[in-house]
Amino acid sequence: MDWLIEPFSFDFMQRALAAGVLAAITTSVVGTWVILRGLAFMGDALAHGVLPGIAIALLADLNPMAGAAVAAVVMVGAISVVHRITRLSEDTAIGLLFVGMLALGVVLISRSGSFAVDLVAVLFGDVLGTGRGDLVVQAVAAAVALGGVAIFYRPLLVLSFNEQKAATLGLRPRLAHLVMMGLITLAVVASFQAVGALLVFGLLIAPPATAVLVARRVPTVMVIAMLLGTGEVVAGLLVSYHFDTAAGATMSGLAVAVFFLVLAAVRAKAVWRDRRAKVGTGDSLG
Amino acid sequence: MTFVVLVGLWALLAAGCGAGTGATSVAGEECGPVEVVASTSILGDVVGSVVGEHGVVEVLMPRGADPHSFQISARQAAAMRRADLVVVNGLGLEEGMGGAVETAASDGVRVVEAASFVEPLPFSLDGGGDETGHGSLDPHFWTDPARMAQVVTGLAEALAAADPACAQRWREAAASYREEILALDEEIEVILETIPADRRKLVTNHHSLGYFADRYGFTVLGAIVPGGSTLAEPSPADLAGLVAILEREGIRAIFADTTRPADLAEALAAELGEQVSVVELFTGSLGDPGSGAETYPAMQRTNARRIAAALGDG
User: Fold this and answer.
1) Residue A122 in contact with residue A72, Cβ under 8 Å?
2) Is the ipTM of this complex over 0.90?
3) pLDDT grade for B80, boundaries at 50, 70 and 90
4) B5: which chain A residues are within 8 Å (Cβ-Cβ)?
5) What is the pTM of this model?
């Protein structure tokens, strides 16, 4: 058991664990809806598109999270404007904003002439450098995500399966959609300290996607995703500790690896069941 | 239900590890071995030369790694907590591990920034933007051995503070290594003598030779990559400006780094034709065995020889 307990005897590992678990809770709850509504591209775009906001905030010595949040709001707003006033599909609008924001970020950083932007930490996270203040922010974000999903559960659920029906039921799909965007922004912005703006997407998508393979009901998917995400964070930190790998990337990579493992297991089980069924019918025929 | 499980799991883990971060050394009678963690391979070699057989030095960044984009693992963060002394470069060099170092320091680890022992220089030339932003001090102090000698003295005091019982031993060890570095400084001056004053002009891949230039009377005319950040890239106007400088000044070589791809430098050299060559220097990291840059002094000597060969009368 030493290999499990010893790494977490360090304060920084406990803080990294707390940051990772809080990120996993927030992203799993929100990510489930991202999966169900097919908004993965939107999530990806938001995770990367916040870069100029972070860059401006760092250059102006402001809080990077505030900068990221403003950039995300600008992005969501611009996407919905483009989508509404043109005949272009939403993913076209997302793509335009995604590339535009990312390009703006790189241009700003290249032009600033400053050597102060810790861009590497922004992109890939700095989970081993988590401070107490970061944990407070993440805990609040997790609470807001859980509360938001609980309050808007029905509108979100109906919206995910039938937007027209949501309107006729008086569930205000536009509001639900905005809440949804707000939650994605929250999850991405609050978690980039832990796993970075590039890798947070892994936690947003992979655990809920894995959960969808084995569960049907939305609350079950969320619960399984949270447990998976938490397990992957713990395992990722342990792997980083024992095998000397970069912590944030190990957690995100592991989340995706687990998806494929579960997928293989589910497929293998299905094939096995089919074969048994076939053998069974064969027997009865013979 | 989940929350109960999660909180329970968390509490279990937290309870299992209350113990805290190990023993701090008491100012005892015996001169025991020290454990030092150094961020870059260059600092690792310097610290290792001072510590010698009296301790272990763990280097976080592997040789050849770009210090700006390196990220540490959890095991290395743990090694920092156990160390008697952590030596980092400072001035923003360790971009990807700044947070981990900061929290280590706030957890009570003795962290010393090597750059704090020298007088820092601002970046000699910037990529075209203004230089008002904070953190525009150049972290590459090690390209000047005279400054490295000051760092060695500072490290001796840091080791003495971390291990007061053996303070004298550390000061003596550092003094003899300092002599070696000062001799290296003179040797490099001799190597560079073949370069006449009007040809002491440098164009580099990224801003890495500012201190070298300051020490040996060179001018840095420009660098291809603006800023110190990994994502920064030059604009066509930057590159055109550099081409103009290279042509006007009759520069013969662009100095690239072994830790970064030299594509842009190659492109610029191709633009200017055969008279300009791209010369690789060991700036961000020591080299592998057999590269001629296995240790800090060997690295500086090799760089000086390559610069002399590229720009000198030889």
Assistant:
1) no
2) no
3) very high
4) 227
5) 0.75
